[in-house]
Amino acid sequence: MQRAMKTLLPVVVILICFASGSAIAQSGLGIRAGVTADPTQFHFGGHYITKPFFKALSFRPNLEIGFGDNVTTIATNFEVAYSIPIPNSNVSAYFGAGPALLFYNFDDFPDHDTDTGGGFNILIGAEYKHGFFGEFKIGTFDSPDFKFTVGFTFR
Question: Could you tell me the residue range of the domain that residue 44 belongs to?
Fold first, then answer.
């Protein structure tokens, strides 16, 4: 796990520095909720999406809190995504990836054990011009194996 953290930290720093100029030109704050597998949880949280900083590539950091499976999860995801407009439609498809920092609080009484880890997510989704979106994520390392999330971005 320490090796993953040593690898994750430089990636997170580079992404934050690279995207910080675009974060000022923020194009939308939003809310999100969904379900995860391994651990089996319901999650909710918030995000923002920057204006594209290179062609159709935007920075999409998000924070999700998950409950269930005798564990509470806090996931901070530093993802970038590339949008592909669908012709003659109000919908765009997108795909992306990015590192994650996760905090787990296990509800095993009386120990209440905690763990911190790094992960990496690969995502694909669709978003409507007016803000509604749905996405699937596959996680590696300490990230949940699978997530399905729906949400809304206020624009």
Answer: 2-154
